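A quick word before the example. In earlier lectures we treated sequence and structure as two separate objects. From today on, think of them as two lines of the same record. Here is Pyrimidine-nucleoside phosphorylase written that way.
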Amino acid sequence: MRMIDLIHKKKHNQELSEAEIKFFVENYTSGNIPDYQVSAFAMAIYFQGMSDQETTTLTQSMVDSGDTIDLSDIEGIVVDKHSTGGVGDKVSLIITPLIASLGIPVAKMSGRGLGHTGGTIDKLEAIDGFKIELTREEFTNNANEYKVALAGQSGNLVPADKKLYALRDVTDTVDSLPLIASSIMSKKIASGSDAIVLDVKVGSGAFMKTVEEATALAEIMTSIGNNLGRKTVAVLTNMNQPLGREIGNANEVREAVEVLSGKGEQDITEVSMVIASHMAVLGGAYSNEEEARKALDAKIASGEALEKFKQFVEIQGGNFDSIYEKQASHVVEVKAKEDGALVSVDSEQIGLAAMKLGAGRSTKEDEIDYSVGISMHHKIGARVTKNDTLFTLYMNDSSLQADVEETLHNSYRISETYEGEYEYVYKIIK
Ligand code: URA
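And the structure line, produced from the sequence above:
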């Protein structure tokens, strides 16, 4: 078999066989196929797309390129959740203890943030002592005994994706739906859960800017998951403004605690509860989402969800109270320049502003400052008066103030009226 023949076939929109896709993944991972041929191949896929069968085979071959995690020694149906990345997205911090409080095991691998979106591991590391590296034994024991274990990605999971993603990044082929879908799903499948809920973000802070694009991606991902024996549901959620009020690491953990105490903002609460309801159904504990929702609401009202979060932090070595000690040295208010209704915000710009303050990384080597961040006081549709505080900045380097303030002022639009209706969840795809 020769790579040039595969490129030729894809260029002419012919379907690749299972053997051809496996040949490509195995030989690219082992270094037998050069980047220049794979660049051409990725571009051919970008223009011609892939069939359902091809995408599923590509995903399975990528899973087979490295280690896989065997969670079979965890009792019960293990349900995982993945977000395509958002701003202020602390849903994993909320649903992890929430699902565990129902007795459904959550054994989850999470990642770090890069660019304008945050990562669950960085947020948890805002808690002093929190250990994200667990031995295999600790991971299994915690999942069995406490129903909760969360660790950073370790081992050699999906090396084909690491190589291919880096190449896509420099050849402008990231935004190919079959390549995104197989990249995300291969990592989820290799992580070993039985069922997966995908939070596909849509809007100004997301990869997918429209519901149509997000629907197409969600359909491919759910199809891959279900074809490969993992029950998969996608929830399309609105990322046209940051989720909740807080952006930054320690302040997002504090906000997650508020949601688990029943005092969260409506948007982050609703999105978390919808995702958790689907996870609870996939976990086999409830026959429908309404029943699951009632049980989840009860866990919040009784305080058990919050207790589970505290237990989760403690068993992974963290000091819960330390999140209230992480405070930045400078607090600055950014005020509205005019009266009117807040009609739009650019989540990506707000995420970038938080990154500039040190809450995120622009390169993998950057160090995070856990205490910095942004609070957003008004959401789309709110009426504001000139000099109302729109944002509070928490910073440790006051020289950043002017630049960050300017970014934030450019991130929103105030107009006379707002007539839209801001939906939190657009649709569910199974
Ligand atoms: N996230 C991934 O993991 N892969 C992609 O291709 C895009 C987003």
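Notice the following. The chain has a mean pLDDT of 95. We will return to this example when we discuss secondary structure assignment.
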